[in-house]
């Protein structure tokens, strides 16, 4: 699925002066320029598959994944949403019609997606279908994308408030909830899913919020989730991912092929795994194998 750009009736101005000026210098290469780039980038925001192994600990009277503290994640989500709202409020209507870093989507599309995703996750937590249908999801985003800045900001605030409200209710965070495409997961992971949506799509807006500005703890957790997503994949060799920032390591890939070690700054590692950086933007990464001149392992489409 590729989401269409705003309809013919929408204004399509050339680049304007103001806060967002990075797109020309940071336009994505490789996977983000193919016709399938948008769904891949959206999907890579957070793996829909549940973790293969579940460890547990006590939290608030329920048993949850040890990496997940839903109440703490809700607080982090509030902070991330406030950062997003603050930066978006400095834009104007023309900025929202300009391209985001997601092919085929304007900044208005990204903001509309964030608002509708908030409502979708409220549905999940309240036991309703996440979306009425895939077609309805796409239609709602296309409908809301051309709205003026004031409407987008109000929708972002109101939908975020609905997430906070349902998250504040007493709940069994260990219960299973239904997501899209028949996938289920622990309710305890939903706040972090939303946090990932807000943080990575904030980057996708191309308004100066880069991967390097993400909180270090968030970056490490998302790298852990993304490496888990590719764990066991038959088309990826065994890969050891090493952060040059603090020495943290993650393992991913399958069991066949020559082992590879990929190292570099955590934000750049995240950009590679999440499909947010490619080509020259990955020059800071190092690749070590027994084969001279080997490049970064290719990450397959989702």
Number of strands: 8
Percent of residues in beta strands = 5-15%
- The CATH homologous superfamily of the largest domain corresponds to dinb family like domain
The strand order across the widest sheet is 6-5-7-8
Rg from alpha-carbon coordinates: 19 Å
Q: What is the helical fraction, as a range of percent?
A: 40-55%
What is the CATH C level class of the largest domain, in words? Mainly Alpha
Sheet of most strands? 4 strands, mixed
> In sequence order, what are the helices and strands, one letter per element?
HHEEHHHHHEEHHEEEHE
Query: What structural class do helix, strand and pairing data support?
Result: alpha+beta
> Under the CATH scheme, which architecture of the largest domain would be assigned?
Up-down Bundle
CATH fold assignment of the largest domain: Four Helix Bundle (Hemerythrin (Met), subunit A)
pLDDT average, as an integer? 84
Uncertain segments are 1-17, 23-35, 49-64
Number of helices: 10
